[in-house]
């Protein structure tokens, strides 16, 4: 396994959905493909219609109907009252009096309806504006519930809405949501404690087994058959130890980070690549480090495990003579690390499943020589604990492109 600083000219071009980002230095960041997730809700020819607008439209429609009914009833009553007025005058006949009465009623009703419609239009506009602010006021607690729900993750389940106000339906919804968060937090904590405790309990017998096997294999009088069985058991024991270490790291990475320090991802990647170069691997790959400073805010140990798992995944699941590109830097205001590798073709529908625990390509659970199937799930947990973002896509010609974005550390 060798390392190179320059990318070979035979490297295939990035996928069409990736745009090249050039930072200082020789590296090129293929920009991760992103899907635009539109929020749900009522959709029409103009897109999404919020509840606030629907309530405003409902208030306005109800006012228009009530106002129209009131105007109709008022017009009928006024017309009835004016119809009972008798015109009395000297020197006019009954027919002339009736004609004067008809003209008076018509002119009065015309002016009444015209002026009522003008006043009705003005009040309708005022009612719509007031309805909009009333709807906004009524929905403000729901906006707080929505904001809290969007902010929550597995590592922030300790937050609560704690809505204050009258004991109405909205407060009942917020209290129910808080109770659900309490139950979820307890369930996650129980799961993490179980994994951590079980892993700690299993490490001791595995260590004892390894010691006994190594002592037994050190005896020169052991037969070749027993030596072969002992080596097989040692390899199995080593795989179990890697599984236990992975479970411990997974349980730790899913906890809320209490301390965060500035960590340069370029230094982390450089250390990981040096350690990877000293280890023996089943296949020979060429590493291409393209490292530029990108300082994230987080746990140095977890971030080193994150980059190490990405690099190990790119080496193990690769072809003999394949290539791995490791890039660090700043992309779109985030500290970014990206690992791209050649290897077998990964269908698009399999990419997301690879980040689940004990998942491998083509649902391979039998072959454990390449690992315990926890590497990418640990990566995802570390990213979530750091409130970062993970993008993964299959690479043209085979392999994966995995991009991690983490919050930048504030300037000192």
Automatic annotation (TrEMBL):
Question: Which top EC class applies here?
Answer: transferase
Write out the GO MF terms: phosphorelay sensor kinase activity
Question: Residues annotated as region Disordered?
Answer: 1-41
- What are its E.C. numbers? 2.7.13.3
List, alphabetically, the SMART domains matched. HAMP, HATPase_c, HisKA
Identify one Gene Ontology CC term for this UniProt entry.
plasma membrane
Catalysis: reaction(s): ATP + protein L-histidine = ADP + protein N-phospho-L-histidine
| Ranges of residues in domain Histidine kinase | 197-410
> What subcellular locations does the record give?
Cell membrane
Domain of life, source organism: Bacteria
- The residue ranges crossing the membrane are 57-82, 112-135
Q: Where is the HAMP domain?
A: 136-189
Which keywords does this Swiss-Prot/TrEMBL entry list?
Answer: Kinase, Membrane, Phosphoprotein, Transferase, Transmembrane, Transmembrane helix, Two-component regulatory system
- Where are stretches of biased composition, namely Basic and acidic residues? 1-22
Which InterPro entries has this protein been placed in?
Answer: HAMP_dom, HATPase_C_sf, HATPase_dom, His_kinase_dom, HisK_dim/P_dom, HisK_dim/P_sf, Sig_transdc_His_kin-like_C, TCS_sensor_his_kinase
What is this protein's name?
histidine kinase
Query: What is the protein's species of origin?
Result: Actinomadura rayongensis
